Structure formats: C-alpha cells, structure tokens
Known about the structure:
Blueprint: E1 3-7, H1 11-22, E2 27-31, H2 34-43, E3 48-52, H3 60-67, E4 75-79, H4 84-92, E5 97-100, H5 105-120, E6 138-141, E7 144-147, E8 152-155, E9 158-160, H6 164-174, H7 183-191, H8 199-213, E10 223-226, E11 230-233
Parallel strand pairs: 1-2, 1-3, 3-4, 4-5
Antiparallel strand pairs: 6-7, 7-8, 8-9, 10-11
Amino acid sequence: MYNILLVDDDKDIRNALKIYLTHDDYRILEAENGKKAVNALHENEIHLILLDVMMPIMDGIEVAQKIRTFSNVPILFLSAKSEDTDKLLGLNVGGDDYITKPFNPMELTARVKSALRRFTSLGGIEDTVRDKNLSPNIYQTGGLVLDDNKKQVSIDDKLVQLTAVEYNILKFLMENLDFVFSSKQIYEAVWQEPAFDVSKTISVHIRHIREKIEINPKEPHYLKVVYGLGYKVVKL
C-alpha cells in the first residue's frame, strides 16, 4: 500500500482528495501546513506528496525546497494559479508535476498513479547495454553510469541523487546513446501520456540533471541540446 501525504490548509480540499484517492486503496496522511508536512515526512514512510502552493507558516515552494535537501519523494504541486511562470517555479524547486485547481478527479488519480509508477518501478529495460562487459541494466558513457538494478546514478564513482523524473529522463536517453529526442518524445516516454506544450517542463528537468552530472552545466559533456531538435546523451 502506498502512503500519500496531502498538504493543504483547506480541510475541504483535503477531504475531497481523500475521497478521490481512497478508492485506489492508498493510505492517506494529512498536514494542514508546511511545517507539519516536513515533520510528517521525517516521521513516516511517504511515497508521494500532494502539496498546495499557497499556505500559511510555510508555503509549498519553501516546503519543497526543504524536502529536496533530504528526500527524492515525488511532489505534485496543487495550485489555483495556472501561469507558466508559476508552474516553472514549482518545477525549479524540485516538483515533479503541477496540477491546477479545480482539478479533474480522473486526471488527478492518473497523475498520482503515473508518479508512483515512476518512483517505484521506474519502468522496464530493454537489453541494450552499451558495453557487453557490463551487467544487464547498467548503462555507461564515459564516467557516467546508471545502474538500474540498484536505481543509482554515479559520475566518476560518486553517487548522484536524482528525483524519479530526472532518473527516468536520464535512463531513457542513456538507453539510446547519441539519439536525439524532442521534448514531446521524452515526455511521452517518461510520463507515458500524451504531451501538450511540454518544452519548458522538459527543459527545467534537463537543467536539473545537468547541474548534478556535469562539471560545468553551461558547457555539458554528457547531456547535450541539439538546437531546434531536442536532447541526447552522447556516447563517449
């Protein structure tokens, strides 16, 4: 059973979310503000957080920043704001997805399932390793290694902490070294749902990955952009 933490200062919204999610047999925990949310995450095993942006004491943006210092648990932001700048801000601080209020119950539950799937199973792997001397499900290019058996990424033998979304994007690109994929193709491969206007979303996640695996993210060695076409991880 998955444990989902609902963080919203509006009790009616928390109650509505519980109704939508208990049909799928999730265990629901609640927090009415950001401070209680951080405490709940320290005290419980949480598999996903639904996090409101506008809250008293500590807003959702600050909560996400604190959480990302010690956990890669998926964070789905909930907000009445639908502007691209607000969505990008949520992604920039480590959010995995952004759901606008009022939300469609079917869309909400679908995104929750998708996020949990990425976080727990991280998808299947084809037997297409770069080096025949490597174990199956281990991908390498230069000093960058993705071990899908252990769900770990390392650069020059140093472990790198990625979110579930970042991990899946990198894995998809490392499965297909030197192949260029558009933002739409990356989104549909990782999220497993149709993509609509996702270029900014993907660019934010790509930037986060570069910040973690590249010595100089502005001059990337591994994760390259092919202007006008998309992104690729180069074969070294």
